[in-house]
Amino acid sequence: MSRPLKSCFLVLIGLCFAASLFLMVLVEGIEATPRDTQDSRGRTMGFNDRFSPEHYRIALGNFRPGALFRGDYAYDWLLLVAQLVGAWCLWSAPRSARRATRWYFLAQPAVFFIGTLGVVFLVGPILLVELLSFQADRENFTDVPFLELVTQAAWVIVSGTIVRALPGQSLGLGETWSALCRRLRNRHPFRTR
To answer: Is the distance from CB of 140 to CB of 53 less than 8 angstroms?
Structure first.
């Protein structure tokens, strides 16, 4: 794999990792912020109140690092570990291990199936656009599995991009199928040895 392609993949994974970690911090900060909290213009962070940039700053200020180590975030930590393992696979895998690397990234939509559903039904991208355009409200973060739908959807998209663009050997399904057929042809179902 060329160095620019490997660098591009690693940058994608790094951005995905940073965004996942940032959104974990943001969601925990929002959950720690009382609903009647107001920004300098008197706008609250209550039910169906749109968040301003100042609301995000308030939520980030209410974040406590120890809260991320509750059991609620186990699946999110698994996502961060999967991203680090993916970066390690790309960085250190020899040319002969590309098929295994491709299989690793191909398995990610199954491991993070909520993100896959978020991509299929476009929920994850829609929530992300609302977040970035400051159209999100508290319910976007608390009433739906926001972290899973957005961060896992991003990881599923990155993983799919890597599977598709990774040069070299295919997944090896054709070779596996041919070997299985040869093996079955050589065996008679009623032959005993």
So the answer is: no
DSSP collapsed to 3 states, the chain: CCHHHHHHHHHHHHHHHHHHHHHHHHHHHHHHCCCCCECCCCCECCCCCECCHHHHHHHHHCCCHHHHHCHHHHHHHHHHHHHHHHHHHHHHCCHHHHHHHHHHHHHHHHHCHHHHHHHHCCHHHHHHHHHHCCCCEHHHHHCCCHHHHHHHHHHHHHHHHHHHHCCCCCCCHHHHHHHHHHHHHCCCCCCCC
In the predicted structure, residue 96 carries a pLDDT above the cut 80: no
Burial class (CB in 10 A: 0-12, 13-18, 19+), 81: exposed
Q: How much is the pLDDT for 157?
A: 93
Q: Tell me if 58 sits within 8 A of 70, measured CB to CB.
A: no
Residue of higher predicted confidence among 93 and 165: 165
For residues 185-192, average pLDDT: 64
pLDDT band at 14 (very low <50, low <70, confident <90, very high): very high
pTM score: 0.79
Q: How far apart are CA 159 and CA 89, in angstroms?
A: 12
Cα 176 to Cα 40: distance, rounded to the nearest angstrom: 64
Out of 57-66, 95-104, 145-154, least confident range = 95-104
